[in-house]
């Protein structure tokens, strides 16, 4: 095969060390990488790029011949399509994952190079190719299996047990083809009884303020930055899940983080939990001395009955959303349950000094 070689750096260039214009019609991205265009999502070979440049020195690389190993995707098409058709439905794949995978199949599967001429990486265990390493997106998914094998000698109970194990995977949309096409193909090609991915939950892009996250350019907030703020981890988890870009791009802003913290976590969930627990913890005569009493007549109380019916339906919706890996929707429903709890307390007069009297009346 042919590969780009930088005569200035005197080496074959890794995919991410090459940048150029995407060849896809209508894309107009002049900063596509050697293996993928982030704008249109198409996987590329570095030799496909228009006007490629070495990212290290900026010189235009030349094309040289070199021998490599390939994954023969065309020979696996029938097995792969059967797996995708069945699993995308049974596993409730997110729509963006289905769309990206379908576009790959419609373009036609081609042999995919799985080795590189690099000094770093996982060496190919073959004498003829001992000076080469595996392409990262062929090697990395195998790491899911190998890290399990490092953890336990019984790794096959997880990875060769599709009848009893369901595999869920979460990722950004730019990594979809590696997990819905390449990795399943590699496993299917062995003819062995591997546990294949059942459900894939794919996000669109999360943008930062008015631009894109970029660690190299210092734009955005990352793990070390989040830690330095001293904002509790649960607040970050809540905000990122509530703002999860499941169907379209979302934007991270500090003002939105503050608003969600104050209006949702504190005023809704925090308020509900605090009102209930602080009352229950009050000493007898003002509360229940941290012991929740029986409520034998709750079914005859209209507000309590209405709350039970509403929350019951919300719990069913929550379970359905989580089963379908709709995490953002599930969190929204959970917060709706908290809102119903606050409304119930308010309507029942559970405020101030009237709390004890109201509860005693409702609970008999």
Structural descriptors:
14 strands, 13% strand, 3 domains, elongated, three-stranded antiparallel sheet, 364 residues, Isoleucyl-tRNA Synthetase, Domain 1, alpha+beta, Rossmann fold, Methionyl-trna Synthetase, domain 2, disordered C terminus
What does the secondary structure layout of this molecule look like, with pairings?
Blueprint: E1 2-6, E2 11-12, E3 18-21, E4 32-33, E5 50-54, E6 62-65, E7 70-71, H1 77-90, H2 95-107, E8 112-113, E9 115-116, E10 133-134, H3 136-151, H4 156-159, E11 167-172, H5 176-190, E12 197-203, E13 206-208, H6 223-228, H7 233-242, E14 250-252, H8 254-281, H9 302-323, H10 327-347, H11 354-363
Parallel strand pairs: 11-12, 13-14
Antiparallel strand pairs: 1-2, 1-6, 3-4, 3-5, 7-8, 9-10
Helix pairs in contact: 1-5, 2-5, 3-5, 7-8, 8-10, 9-10
Distance between the termini: 82 Å
Helicity range of the residues? 40-55%
Largest sheet: 3 strands, antiparallel
Could you give the order of the helices and strands?
A: EEEEEEEHHEEEHHEHEEHHEHHHH
Mean pLDDT, to the nearest integer, reads 90
β-strand percent reads 5-15%
Task: Write a brief caption for the model.
Its EC number is 6.1.1.10. By secondary structure, the protein is of the alpha+beta class.
Description:
- Its EC number is 6.1.1.10.
- This protein is of the alpha+beta class.
- The protein is built from eleven helices and 14 strands.
- The chain is elongated and about 85 Å long.
- The model is unreliable at 352-364 (pLDDT under 50).
């Amino acid at each position: 095969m042919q590969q780009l070689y930088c005569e200035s750096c005197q080496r074959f260039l890794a995919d991410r060390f090459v940048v150029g214009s995407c060849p896809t019609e209508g894309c107009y991205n002049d900063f596509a990488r050697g293996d993928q265009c982030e704008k249109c999502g198409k996987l590329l070979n570095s030799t496909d790029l228009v006007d490629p440049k070495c990212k290290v020195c900026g010189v235009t690389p030349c094309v040289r011949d070199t021998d490599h190993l390939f994954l023969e995707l065309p020979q696996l098409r029938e097995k792969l399509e059967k797996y995708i058709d069945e699993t995308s439905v049974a596993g409730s794949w997110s729509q963006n994952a289905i769309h990206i995978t379908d576009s790959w199949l419609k373009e036609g599967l081609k042999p995919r190079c799985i080795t590189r001429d690099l000094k770093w990486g996982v060496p190919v265990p073959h004498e003829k190719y001992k000076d080469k390493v595996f392409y990262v997106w062929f090697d990395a998914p195998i790491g899911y299996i190998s890290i399990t094998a490092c953890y336990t000698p019984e790794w096959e109970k997880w990875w060769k047990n599709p009848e009893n194990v369901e595999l869920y995977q979460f990722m950004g949309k730019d990594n979809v083809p590696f997990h819905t096409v390449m990795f399943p193909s590699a496993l299917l090609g062995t003819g062995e009884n591997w546990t294949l991915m059942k459900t894939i939950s794919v996000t669109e892009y999360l943008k930062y303020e008015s631009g894109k996250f970029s660690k190299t350019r210092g734009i955005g907030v990352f793990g070390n930055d989040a830690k330095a703020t001293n904002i509790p981890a649960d607040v970050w988890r809540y905000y990122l899940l509530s703002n999860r870009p499941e169907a379209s791009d979302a934007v991270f802003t500090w003002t939105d983080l503050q608003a969600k913290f104050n209006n949702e976590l504190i005023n809704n969930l925090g308020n509900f939990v605090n009102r209930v627990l602080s009352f229950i913890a009050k000493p007898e005569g003002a509360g229940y001395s941290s012991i929740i009493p029986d409520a034998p007549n709750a079914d005859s109380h209209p507000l309590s009955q209405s709350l039970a019916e509403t929350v019951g339906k919300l719990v069913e919706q929550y379970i359905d959303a989580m089963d379908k890996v709709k995490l953002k929707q599930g969190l929204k429903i959970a917060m709706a349950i908290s809102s119903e709890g606050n409304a119930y307390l308010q309507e029942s007069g559970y405020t101030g000094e009237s709390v004890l009297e109201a509860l005693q009346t409702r609970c008999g």
